[in-house]
Design brief:
This protein is of the alpha/beta class. It has 2 domains: 168 residues, D-Maltodextrin-Binding Protein, domain 2 (3-Layer(aba) Sandwich); 98 residues, Periplasmic binding protein-like II (D-Maltodextrin-Binding Protein, domain 2). Helix content is 42%, strand content 19%. The chain is built from 12 helices and 9 strands. Strands 1, 2, 3, 4, 5, 6, 7, 8 and 9 form a 9-stranded mixed beta sheet that branches. Helix 2 crosses helix 10 and helix 2 packs antiparallel against helix 11. It is globular and about 65 Å long. The N terminus is likely disordered.
Length: 319
């Protein structure tokens, strides 16, 4: 009986000391890792590798859940409405945080709907042409657009996606007409580029690298050269200060207890150091700074929100 009293007292003290909603044994059950895109893409693969590391670290299951729709907004909004106990998390590019709320009315969430946990990926964009293209540099692209009445055409994914914004930002910086031809995915886009139906394309560096000799990379939208393709110059090196990057990672619903966020950050740091993750990151041509802790991630997100709003207004995509 004495032992039971002591156990009860200890439990009461622990409950008092823990922040509201926190649990000493987090996670208490399977954690749902929500990604608002279909399975099989690059960030989906990264999330599955991250989930494996988190499961090992916490000795609890972290299961990937693909919740698609509305350009990603449905899955993001689902997590925004979830109970803030750390058992439902979101894995998404900054685009969903910094662009979608501006581009879509009644998107169902806002930037303050989430607590950033950790950044775990950085997908750089690339400007590519077909092998037989006369365009050899980014400056060639700009001069071709300047010389042709009405400009030239580039392939990218939908309006407002990071691949579209890369091409649109280049057009804005160079003050030339580059006409966007939208496609649903990289497979369709690559076919149109290789077939000569567009002059160039902007896509992820991973997709460009996967296409192999079917395309040529003229420039990478980044502040520094990618270590996996050291001979590919940046667009900045070629005279155009344009470097939109699709970075992102793990988010929790706003209101998750601080100690749970601390534990998740430690788990995240462990997971990205595991071979299954580092090897995949190399294969997907991640940039040099694909991991960041919660504070650094939050600061970068705040800057991205401001930068993207300015860009969207300048491009006439929002008021």
């Amino acid at each position: 009986m004495t032992i039971n009293k002591h156990v009860t007292a200890a439990a009461l003290v622990a409950a008092i000391l823990l922040p509201s909603g926190a649990r000493a044994d987090y996670p208490e059950r399977t954690v749902d890792l929500v990604i608002p895109y279909a399975a099989g893409g690059g960030i989906d693969l990264l999330l599955r590798a991250l989930g494996e590391g988190l499961s090992t670290h916490f000795k609890q299951s972290f299961v990937v859940s693909n919740r698609t729709g509305a350009g990603g907004a449905l899955g993001v909004a689902y997590v925004a409405r979830a109970t803030p106990d750390g058992h439902t998390l979101l894995f998404v590019p900054a685009l969903a945080y910094s662009v979608l709320p501006h581009m879509q009315a009644n998107v169902g969430y806002a930037t303050n709907s989430f607590a950033p946990v950790c950044q775990t990926f950085e997908n750089q964009m690339a400007l590519i042409v077909r092998p037989g293209s006369p365009l050899k540099t980014v400056r060639d692209v700009v001069e071709a657009a300047r010389a042709k009445a009405g400009g030239i055409h580039f392939a990218a994914t939908a309006v407002g996606t990071i691949t579209h914004l890369a091409g649109a930002a280049l057009a804005d910086a160079a003050k030339v007409p580059l006409n966007h031809v939208p496609f649903r995915g990289d497979g369709e886009l690559m076919g149109q580029l290789i077939g000569g139906h567009v002059d160039f394309a902007t896509t992820t560096l991973a997709s460009a690298a996967a296409a192999g000799p079917s395309v040529r990379v003229l420039g990478i939208f980044a502040d520094a050269r990618n270590p996996s393709l050291p001979d590919a110059p940046t667009v900045k090196e070629q005279g155009y200060d344009v470097a939109p990057t699709s970075f992102g990672g793990l988010f929790a619903p706003a209101g998750v207890p601080a100690d749970v966020l601390t534990r998740l950050n430690a788990g995240c740091r462990f997971a990205v150091q595991q071979t299954v993750y580092t090897d995949l990151a190399k294969r997907l041509h991640q940039g040099n700074n694909y991991y960041a802790d919660a504070a650094t991630f939050a600061k970068r997100l705040d800057a991205d929100v401001a930068d993207k709003k300015t860009l969207l207004v300048r491009l006439g995509l929002v008021k």
